[in-house]
Design a protein that fits this description.
The structure holds three protein chains of three kinds. Chain A has four helices and seven strands; from the N terminus they run H-E-E-H-E-E-E-E-H-E-H. By secondary structure, chain A is α/β, with parallel strands linked by helices. In chain A, a hairpin with a 2-residue loop joins strand 1 and strand 2. Chain A is elongated, with a radius of gyration of 19 Å. In chain A, strands 1-2-5-4-3 form a five-stranded mixed beta sheet, with helices on one face. Chain A has a two-stranded parallel ribbon with strand order 6-7. Chain B is an alpha/beta fold. Chain B has a single domain, classed as Rossmann fold (3-Layer(aba) Sandwich). Helices cover 39% and strands 10% of the residues of chain B. By secondary structure, chain C is mostly helical. The model of chain C has no long low-confidence stretch (mean pLDDT 89). The chains are: A alpha/beta, B alpha/beta, C mainly alpha. At the B-C interface, helix 2 of B face helix 2 of C.
Amino acid sequence: MISSLQEDLESKFKDVEVRVLEQNRISVLVPGDSIPVILRYLKESGLNHLALISCVDWIEQEKLEVVYVLTSYMPNDTEHGPEQRLHVLLKTRIPREDAQVKSAIAVFENAEPYERELHELYGVNFEGHPRLIPLFLEREYEIPPFRKDFDMRKYVEDTFGSIPSVDG
Amino acid sequence: MDRNQIAKWLKSPAKMANKYSLHAVYFCTGCGIIEIPPVITTRWDAERFGVLPVATPRQGNLFMITGYVSLKTLRAIIRTYEQMPDPKYTVGFGSCPINGGMYWDSYNTIKHLDKYIPVDGWIAGCMPRPEAVFIGVTHLWTLIDKGKADGYLRYKKNYAAYRRNQEMILRDIEWPPLYPVESKAEEVSV
Amino acid sequence: MTRIAQIVLSPLIAFVVGVLFLGLSRKIIARIHRRYGPPIYQPVIDMVRLMSQRSISHGALFELGVVLSVAGSFVTVLFIPLGGTEVSRELHPFAHGVLCPLCGSGGLLVVTYLMLFGPLGLALGAGASANPNASIGVSRKMLLAMAYEVPFLLVLLAVMSHYGTISFTEVVARQQQAGWGVLSVPLSAVAGFLILPAMLGIRPFDVATAPQEIASGPLAEYGGSYLALIAVQKAMHLFVVIALYVDLFLGGGVNLATFLLKMLAVFLAAEMINAVLPRLKIEDAVKFCWKWPTALALLQMIITVVSK
């Protein structure tokens, strides 16, 4: 099943790089524009569960890598075991300065909170998202906090250490 | 009750009643609240100490801040603390309110709780065991006896300093000051 | 005893016994949960502490509601006979005259009216506190009152038509001559015991002041001395309801001590139900109160009317 998926992807779409990480787990690297098309193709070929959208900060290469983890809903009985579950990690690299990706809400509706989280913590802008407001944090930061050039200790010392204690 | 207790009750009933009827506001602040349900249920019974959980701050007089305090939670804690009627006692529970604890270098949690609201006592641990809660409660009793548990009096006295700290960390506060604060407008003589 | 002395003594007995019952309820529930509970005088400590706290008021209507509900329960006590007998003074060595300051010829109807002032006053005060939890609690409390009033009135009608009178002292005297109410109107006694938790506001019918769901319902904004007064009202309402049940179905008491012992027995039965049952939703509570207790009370009324 893995090899058939690999051949389908490489034949149908251009500029796709597929690597087999271990048994039943592959990673697919695509350019940023073809994300919605490939997501819809994977959903129609059986991978209908978007488990997570995550992000990695490659600061030396000046790129952010957005990762979509896809798997399939399977019933929990004795015929389906863990070796039949297939995981696909769909990755794309976008420039750090101007990070824009098309939103995946049209294909998977449950991508809405993950994209809000990535917007506030990494600064990635998702086009087509109806409500891109902060999810956990309370305020805006000049550098998004999860990027590697955000100096955490200096920020903590400036913000919290500068408040005097109350005597008496 | 021995004769000493009866004499104490007759001399200052309000102080003795405040000791033996500490109703805790059941505001589950952080991850440390997981240690409170065992304390108030059957195995380690806190009701024999007079400690009960209540649902609203208007009915309570003990506020236990369990676990880390993020900035959103700090807003809710200050509003809840100001709604409780005097006299009220605050206890910092766990090591995160003391000095930041496990989140000492986080961008979103505050490090010292007693810069923003007055705290009467601390219980160290991550998380403290239920026996530590009872030791803390009995220690709070001795503090109330000696008159040293005066967090609410300190809040009233130093309210300008507390309000300034709250405004510095939260940047915009939508509720008015609890006690009147003189504004520091400079008079320019004409 | 003169009437003035009775007017002073009756509410005092109600207050002391009510507060004792409140403390006893916490102790009983704790022992059923296999733990030690607070001491029996814990409600006294709570009330003293609440009185020493600064009371925050929300306006004149807020304070008026509390005063109205306490006054309602206070006055209701004056119309209920608390033991004592006129008919069999010679038979019992420790009997005394009926302890009932304002008993006249229309006791049952007056008590039915006055018992509603408790929830009504609390609803008035809670409406004045601008809290949505209080509004939800008030609507549930009024629905629950509507739920238990229907079987309660049917029970009273059956008792009134069996004894042919609406005077409270007459009902108690006839029971002391001819036998207890549970033997004369048994189905009404069962229906009355089924709605006793609803009238007291304990589980399974404590949906109106649920701390976990709606932040104590109507009591959400009460603190300080107002809450102490509400605790007093709760104690007196508990006393009124249980005294009513004992007078209607268990024959009152030849003296105060027997009366209080019978009240203790009914109270223990109700508290044991309180300790083990969960809470019903408001729709299920109304459905229950309008189904079985109403059916039993209606059946008893038909039997009483037909057999006269």
